[in-house]
Amino acid sequence: MTSLPFDDRDGVIWYDGAFVPWRDARLHVLSHGLHYGGGVFEGMRVYDGAIFKLTEHTERLHTSAHALGFAIPFGVPELADASEELVRRQGIADGYVRPVAWRGGEQLSVSSAGNRVHVAIATWEWPRLFGDATQEEGIRLGTSRWRRPAPDTAPVHAKAASLYNICTLARDEAEAAGYDDALLLDHRGLLAEATGANLFLVIGGALHTPVPDTFLNGITRQTVIGLADDLGIPVHERPLEPDALADADEVFLTGTAYEVQPVRAVDGHRYRVGKVTSALAVAYARLVRTP
């Protein structure tokens, strides 16, 4: 992955309906979204120059904004077309697309009334999140002290920037402790997700995954559940106590950035990268590059 700072690159970014030079895509320091977390975003993968699940991601951006009480001033078709044109202009073959929408700086108070909504889309080359070797070896997770909030305390089904503060705290602490990522429980103490990915356990050849009632029901998660059905692998969505980790033969994560990411350890539990995880990883890799 390139080490170039994200705020100092060449190219263009789509910003409020126009393509602007990358370095000119800026916002004022008194923007409401910066001060009060009034922003939503998406993450999309580009494979062979095509954006995977473009419509679904763009629709979810609108749904997330609605959950935070604002409307995006550009429709799904317009944003989708802008994303595709941006990928073409940037010459991205395999990479990442990041749309983001936030409240501007017309008024700065807890109330959001009177603030204009801005939208930007950027794209860049991006290889595998944890490196190719982790597909064979898996990554290590440590259970975090931070938890996913209850659905009556936060817009848990929105891809809201403010909710990722929890993820940043958990991920930073996990990496400092020598792990690759953190595993979060929910407010009830049940298994929830990693900092940016959904969780699957393989128990007796079947998939077991937490019910997405306190976290985002990921598009990749839904895709992998569909692939499992195609392969005849049973899927059980159910509340999972942390003790279920001891019953698992395999563990993996799913997400746009993570794809299908094997896990070799969670705290003191060890796992192999088994045939179920491998079969789903192969099926997913084939699907995303199918024209």
Keywords:
291 residues; alpha+beta; D-amino Acid Aminotransferase, Chain A, domain 1; D-amino Acid Aminotransferase, Chain A, domain 2; 2 domains; nine-stranded mixed beta sheet; seven-stranded antiparallel beta sheet; 7 helices; 26% helix; globular
- The secondary-structure element order is EEHEEEHHEEHEHEEEEHEEEEH
Oligomer state equals: single chain
CATH class of the largest domain: Alpha Beta
Q: Report the end-to-end length measured between terminal Cα atoms.
A: 26 Å
Let me know the CATH homologous superfamily of the largest domain: D-amino Acid Aminotransferase, subunit A, domain 2
Helix content: 25-40%
Low-confidence stretches: none
Secondary structure category: alpha+beta
Approximately how much beta-strand content do the residues carry? 25-35%
Tally the structural domains.
2
Q: What is the number of helices?
A: 7
Averaged pLDDT: 95
Can you name the CATH architecture of the largest domain?
Alpha-Beta Barrel
How many E strands?
A: 16
Specify the biggest β-sheet. 9 strands, mixed
EC number: 2.6.1.42
Function: Acts on leucine, isoleucine and valine.
Pfam family, one: Aminotran_4
Protein name: Branched-chain-amino-acid aminotransferase
Descriptive report:
By secondary structure, the chain is an alpha+beta fold. It folds into two domains: 114 residues, Aminotransferase class 4, branched-chain amino acid transferase, N-terminal domain (D-amino Acid Aminotransferase, Chain A, domain 1, 2-Layer Sandwich), CATH 3.30.470; 155 residues, D-amino Acid Aminotransferase, Chain A, domain 2 (Alpha-Beta Barrel), CATH 3.20.10. Helices cover 26% and strands 29% of the residues. Strands 8, 9, 10, 11, 12, 13, 14, 15 and 16 form a nine-stranded mixed beta sheet that branches. Strands 1, 2, 3, 4, 5, 6 and 7 form a seven-stranded antiparallel beta sheet that branches. Strand 12, helix 6 and strand 13 form a beta-alpha-beta unit. The longest helix has 15 residues.
